[in-house]
Each structure stands twice: as structure tokens, then as C-alpha cells.
């Protein structure tokens, strides 16, 4: 009996771990590159979800990372592959019945860490965003999509060196033409309320 025919089967779990590691790293790199290429510098602001800016956001509308988001899942897959390779190289944990559960546990720990880290970052960014949006009252903006009578158009303004856009409504319900300069009078729901200058 030729034992060499069974050698690949014995080490199949190593290639599975390697594939998971490679897939996770590739996904992370592609996400970063594509996000940078197509992210742009023109930011769209969606203010509030079920309340006014000065009242804050309710929990149903808080931005953040879901436990099933691609970044958390890819963190698990990458960590599972990496730790699987490490445990496969150790004699006492080489068996797939030992290395796989250990790799899965480590992968879950890394994914949980990524979940907590990104949600903490989003919460801090959200608090900063609320403060920044509140400070826009009184600033000038330019209408880039005409505001119809009793309707919603779009404005562009500059804050922190970045050009941002947001939906806007004229405070008395009047029409505002494209290119007109307006003043932001308040922020309500998901819209900026403006007045022509």
C-alpha cells in the first residue's frame, strides 16, 4: 500500500487554514483599496434618524458595525486561518479535532475584539459628528439641487476643509434656485433648514 497517496489528505486541514488566512487578508486589502478609490472626498450627511440633532439619536438608528458585518466575518476567517496554521504546526495540537476548535475560539475572540473596537470608533465619530453638525447653524451654503416649493433640494457647504452635501428645505417653504447662497438656520430630522441670503 502506497502511503504517499494519503499524505495530502493528512495535511488537507493545513491548506484549509491557509485558504482562510489568504481569503481574509485578500478581502481586507481589497476593501481598503476599493474604499480609498471610490470613497471620494465629497461627504453626504444624513442627520438624525428619529429625532433632532440636539436631541441625539435613538438606538435603532445608531451607526456602527453589525456582528454579521463583512469586517467582523473577515476578521474571524483570517484569525481562524492564521491560528489554525499555528496550531497545526504544534505537535500536541496538530490533530484537526484539536486545532480546529482552538482556531475557531481564537477567531471568535479576534472577531469580538474587532466588533468592539469598530463600534467604539463609530460611537466617538458619531458624537463628534453631532457636535460638528450642531455648529453649522448660521453658516453659509450653496444650493446645488434646486429646492422646490415645500420640497427638498440639496446644499453643499465646507466644514473642516471638506466639501459636504446634505438635503435641505427652505424655512418658509419657498423655492430656492440652483447656485443661490443660503444660510443654515437649523437642522431638523434628516434635513437642513435654510434661508436665502
List the uncertain runs: 1-7, 40-44, 46-62
C-alpha end-to-end distance: 90 Å
Spell out the helices and strands N to C: HHEHHEEEEE
Number of strands: 6
Comma- or semicolon-separated keywords:
alpha/beta; 6 strands; 197 residues; 2 domains; 46% helix; 5-stranded mixed β-barrel; 4 helices; OB fold (Dihydrolipoamide Acetyltransferase, E2P)
Protein topology:
Layout: H1 7-10, H2 12-39, E1 43-44, H3 70-89, H4 96-134, E2 140-145, E3 153-159, E4 162-170, E5 181-188, E6 191-196
Parallel strand pairs: 1-4, 4-6
Antiparallel strand pairs: 2-3, 2-5, 3-4, 5-6
Helix pairs in contact: 2-3, 3-4
Tell me about this structure.
The chain starts with 6 loop residues before the first helix and ends with a strand. 23% of the residues are buried. It has a 5-stranded mixed barrel. The longest helix has 39 residues, at 96-134. Helix 3 (70-89) packs antiparallel against helix 4 (96-134). The radius of gyration is 25 Å and the shape is rod-shaped. The protein is an alpha/beta fold and 197 residues long. Strand 3 and strand 4 form a beta hairpin. The chain has helices spanning 7-10, 12-39, 70-89, 96-134, and strands at 43-44, 140-145, 153-159, 162-170, 181-188, 191-196. The chain has 2 domains: 3-42 and 51-134, no CATH class; 140-196, Nucleic acid-binding proteins (OB fold (Dihydrolipoamide Acetyltransferase, E2P)), CATH 2.40.50.
Amino acid at each position: 500500500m502506497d502511503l504517499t497517496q494519503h499524505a495530502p489528505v493528512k495535511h488537507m486541514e493545513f491548506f484549509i487554514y491557509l485558504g482562510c488566512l489568504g481569503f481574509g487578508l485578500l478581502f481586507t486589502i481589497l476593501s481598503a483599496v476599493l474604499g480609498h478609490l471610490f470613497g471620494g472626498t465629497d461627504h453626504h450627511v444624513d442627520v438624525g434618524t428619529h429625532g433632532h440633532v440636539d436631541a441625539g439619536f435613538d438606538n435603532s438608528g445608531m451607526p456602527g458595525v453589525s456582528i454579521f458585518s463583512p469586517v467582523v466575518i473577515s476578521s474571524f476567517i483570517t484569525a481562524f486561518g492564521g491560528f489554525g496554521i499555528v496550531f497545526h504546526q504544534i505537535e500536541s495540537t496538530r490533530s484537526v479535532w484539536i486545532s480546529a476548535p482552538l482556531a475557531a475560539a481564537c477567531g471568535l475572540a479576534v472577531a469580538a475584539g474587532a466588533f468592539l473596537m469598530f463600534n467604539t470608533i463609530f460611537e466617538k465619530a458619531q458624537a463628534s459628528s453631532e457636535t460638528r453638525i450642531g455648529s453649522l447653524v448660521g453658516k453659509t451654503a450653496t444650493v446645488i439641487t434646486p429646492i422646490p416649493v415645500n420640497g427638498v433640494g440639496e446644499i453643499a457647504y465646507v466644514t473642516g476643509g471638506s466639501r459636504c452635501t446634505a438635503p435641505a428645505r427652505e424655512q418658509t417653504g419657498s423655492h430656492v434656485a440652483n447656485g443661490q447662497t443660503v444660510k443654515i438656520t437649523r437642522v431638523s430630522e434628516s434635513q437642513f433648514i435654510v434661508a436665502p441670503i
